């Protein structure tokens, strides 16, 4: 009895060797997904994404995170969002502006802040660490939040948007924040 491939005059596909891979980082480390040579912006994005992915990979192996379902859920959502953005050729949110990142206020560690943990690395804040406070009042270690802000202009927890260096995106963001009234509406003496 002939095989399906012989009956239809097509060649049988060769079996690929199975390799052990990490789907969280494989996309960021391979350029095979791109049809053209990567641009400098794509290279910068890839470098930032690799550093961010390595942070997440280290966190994934942390036993404390595995025990805490809420933190694991946040981490899974972040990794999923990164992978979704990488696989879809959608533009997504631009990075936060360099001015915004450089002007982030550092916070003096108090007893109240010591009780909190950085949502990215899930470590408690310690006395001599550099901690940034975003305008939405979420606190993060500097080495945790800066790579995120170099990729996104949003808070990783509440998704509050911050300024970017992209003028087109800023124009759209400001239009969304301050919508213009419709000038077509007529004045109605009944409603004043």
TrEMBL record:
<protein>
    <recommendedName>
        <fullName>RING-type E3 ubiquitin transferase</fullName>
        <ecNumber>2.3.2.27</ecNumber>
    </recommendedName>
</protein>
<feature type="domain" description="RING-type">
    <location>
        <begin position="118"/>
        <end position="159"/>
    </location>
</feature>
<keyword id="KW-0808">Transferase</keyword>
<feature type="region of interest" description="Disordered">
    <location>
        <begin position="164"/>
        <end position="192"/>
    </location>
</feature>
<dbReference type="GO" id="GO:0005634">
    <property type="term" value="C:nucleus"/>
</dbReference>
<dbReference type="GO" id="GO:0008270">
    <property type="term" value="F:zinc ion binding"/>
</dbReference>
<dbReference type="GO" id="GO:0006511">
    <property type="term" value="P:ubiquitin-dependent protein catabolic process"/>
</dbReference>
<feature type="compositionally biased region" description="Acidic residues">
    <location>
        <begin position="181"/>
        <end position="192"/>
    </location>
</feature>
<dbReference type="InterPro" id="IPR013083">
    <property type="entry name" value="Znf_RING/FYVE/PHD"/>
</dbReference>
<dbReference type="GO" id="GO:0016567">
    <property type="term" value="P:protein ubiquitination"/>
</dbReference>
<keyword id="KW-0833">Ubl conjugation pathway</keyword>
<dbReference type="InterPro" id="IPR051834">
    <property type="entry name" value="RING_finger_E3_ligase"/>
</dbReference>
<dbReference type="Pfam" id="PF13639">
    <property type="entry name" value="zf-RING_2"/>
</dbReference>
<keyword id="KW-0479">Metal-binding</keyword>
<keyword id="KW-0862">Zinc</keyword>
<dbReference type="InterPro" id="IPR001841">
    <property type="entry name" value="Znf_RING"/>
</dbReference>
<feature type="region of interest" description="Disordered">
    <location>
        <begin position="1"/>
        <end position="21"/>
    </location>
</feature>
<dbReference type="GO" id="GO:0061630">
    <property type="term" value="F:ubiquitin protein ligase activity"/>
</dbReference>
<keyword id="KW-0863">Zinc-finger</keyword>
